[in-house]
Amino acid sequence: MAPVRVAAFFRIGPTGCEPRPNPGKATTIKDLSRLIPHIRSLGRRYTGGALLLLATNALALLIPWYMKLAVEALQRPASARLSATTCALLIVALAVAHCVTRIYSRTLILNAARIIEYRIREELFQRLLLLDLPFFSGSRTGDIISRFANDLTNVRMLTGFGAMSAMNTLILYGAAVTMMWRIHPWLTLCAVVPFPLMVLLVKKVSQHMFRRSLAAQEELARLSSLAEESISAIRLVKSYCREEHFQALFQEIAGRYLEHNLVMGRLRGLIIPVMAVATGAGTLIVLFLGGRLVIAGTITLGDFVAFSGYLTMLVWPTAIMGWILTMMQRGASSMSRLNAILTAEPAVADAADAVSQEGVRQGIELRGLTFGYDNGKLLDDISCHIAAGERIGITGEVGCGKSSLLRLIPRLLPVDDGMILIDGKDINHITLASLRSLIGYVPQEAFLFSRSIRENIAYGVEDQWVDVSNAARRAGFTDDVNSFRDGLETLVGEKGVSLSGGQKQRLSIARALLPGPRILLLDDPLSAVDAGREEEVLNELRGFYGDRTVLIVSHRLSVFRDCHRILVLKDGRIAEQGSPAELLALDGLYAGMQRMQRLRDELL
Description:
The chain crosses the membrane at residues 46-67, 79-100, 157-177, 183-202, 270-295, 307-328. One of its GO terms (cellular component) is plasma membrane. Residues 364-596 form the ABC transporter domain. It is a multi-pass membrane protein. It comes from Pelobacter propionicus (strain DSM 2379 / NBRC 103807 / OttBd1). It is a single chain. The two termini are 46 Å apart. The protein contains 21 helices and ten strands. The protein has helices spanning 25-32, 36-41, 43-75, 84-130, 133-137, 141-183, 185-192, 194-232, 234-239, 243-296, 301-313, 315-342, 402-408, 432-437, 453-457, 469-474, 478-483, 501-513, 531-545, 580-586, 589-603; strands spanning 363-373, 376-387, 391-396, 420-422, 425-426, 439-442, 519-523, 549-553, 565-570, 573-578. The strands form two sheets. Strands 6-7-8-3-9-10 form a six-stranded mixed beta sheet, with helices on both faces. It has a domain at 31-342: ABC transporter transmembrane region fold, CATH 1.20.1560. The protein is an alpha/beta fold.
């Protein structure tokens, strides 16, 4: 059977979840379309905000009209419908009402954007929890964090201030141009002639801004990844005096990020003068032609004042149009990056016919197990049966697939159908929740959360206040806990920085033992534990094993003393298998490893 190629399940780029290169208009629309359900669910807020914006602009549009009436009242008091004083008071009232409706329109729309940001963040985190090891092996932590922070901020700005500004611009343009048209159609046409030319130029510039914005976001992700990696490995950086190297690398990436942002700044700088030229040209046309119309008596001075007021009201929407386009491009590029995570599918998921597995009665069967990454085959035709309650040791040279073999059993990595069976059932047709609830897994590198020892041990159980002392004792960790001032409530620091390597491993063992799993997978669990403490832990584990099925990976053969059988892997295959006594009598690979370790111990 062909090997499983993990990377084939994902389009993994330099940062693991890159968006598609050179996205066009169709792709941009497709990326933004994911926002439609969120906007639709908040339709009342957006509708209410739009109605208030309509009221806001209606009030704003009435102000120039009453200014027109005020001017006409000053010119011809006898024939005026309203006095200049009345018009002034109405203008003040309109300004106050305009202020109130403006505040509430912004509150409704901007709060809706905050809710969308919250929901997408929840979706992102939920999706990340569903994705499996192949995805994360090709993704940088800093890049993912960048998407949670910077890209979500851009989307919030798009759905909030961007949406509000776009609605406001459309309403204001439609209403102001209509009012101008009522005063003098021909003058209106002349005043807005420069605007279409401006829109064409802005559209051309915005295409370049999209590409630059996407590139800038990618550089920011690389910058975040480098910062996260450097801080996490600060002790290693200092130990090897690599401060200058990482500083130079940071400056290089920061320089590229700066370059992309400077180009976007220049493009934005080009848009604003274009807006100003279009607006200024329109104003000049109105001053020249409108003045002549006033002199000719075609329109009144009040009409000219109102027309100029409406044209002035178009200055800000016209100027902000470029900023809205910039925000749309940033939001589209950010949504493209977010969609790379939101649309990613896990290689490992429950099959449609998956059933629950309650226990282990017959055991585990490996049937022609073959597995590999893109760099080649790692496990090749592994076949053996592990009876329920049997303890199996797995050893072999570095890189022969021991750890990958353990990860395949709880389906942390994808495996083809029919290769691993528990009680005769293909693990691909067992629900992930029930499968993993049967298994206690101790990884090669123990990871601890920045919480107390108690919380770290109880991580795998629902009740965080369960008695963890028995699990700590079985892992040989009780003496260490008692030596801490706060005992089980001791905070272990970031990634367990306050604990030694051996303490981390034993805490990790206690975590795996606490739920009482039926299958125990131990991946080199005592590599950082000294010989004396190793003896104590093995004695405690012997009492815990009972009828549990245990698989132990280790290079230290002393760990296998309670194992019924040992598998020796070489080049991805089972080269030898049998009890420790049988393998020593065979005088093969295992016997050679035993002699080498004995000689090493004597020399030390």
